[in-house]
């Protein structure tokens, strides 16, 4: 598998995984627990951003792993989780009314 294929499919896979996780979070938990779950995920993002910001000049090679983790894995997964959570909550409200 070429590198361009990996770069294209990893964010797509994490987006789909985030959608499924968010849908499960929205279906099986209360809104308060869902907010806490998404908040915990945001803390992980904040930790990666702080790690990325602490890399000094001349050490750009150390920034590669946190940058790839953020852009290729964590951000698409968070987007998918938020969309899945709100989507399932909206469908549940529509079915109950």
Assign an overall shape.
elongated
Number of strands: 0
Run of helices and strands: HHH
Give me the number of helical elements.
Answer: 3
The averaged pLDDT comes out at: 87
The class by helix and strand makeup works out as mainly alpha
Q: Give the domain tally.
A: 1
* Main β-sheet description: none
- Specify the helix fraction band: over 70%
Radius of gyration: 16 Å
Strand content: under 5%
Distance between the termini: 48 Å
The low-pLDDT segments are: none
Q: What does the model show?
A:
- The chain is mostly helical and 97 residues long.
- The protein has one domain (3-96).
- It is 85% helix and 0% strand.
- It is built from three helices and no strands.
- The mean pLDDT is 87.
């Amino acid at each position: 598998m070429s590198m361009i294929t990996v770069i294209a499919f990893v964010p797509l896979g994490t987006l789909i995984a985030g959608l499924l996780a968010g849908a499960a979070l929205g279906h099986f938990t209360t809104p308060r627990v869902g907010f806490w779950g998404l908040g915990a995920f945001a803390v992980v993002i904040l930790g990666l951003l702080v790690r990325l910001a602490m890399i000094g000049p001349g050490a750009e090679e150390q920034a590669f792993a946190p940058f790839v983790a953020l852009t290729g894995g964590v951000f698409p997964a968070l987007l998918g989780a938020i969309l899945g959570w709100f989507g399932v909550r909206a469908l549940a409200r529509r079915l109950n009314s």
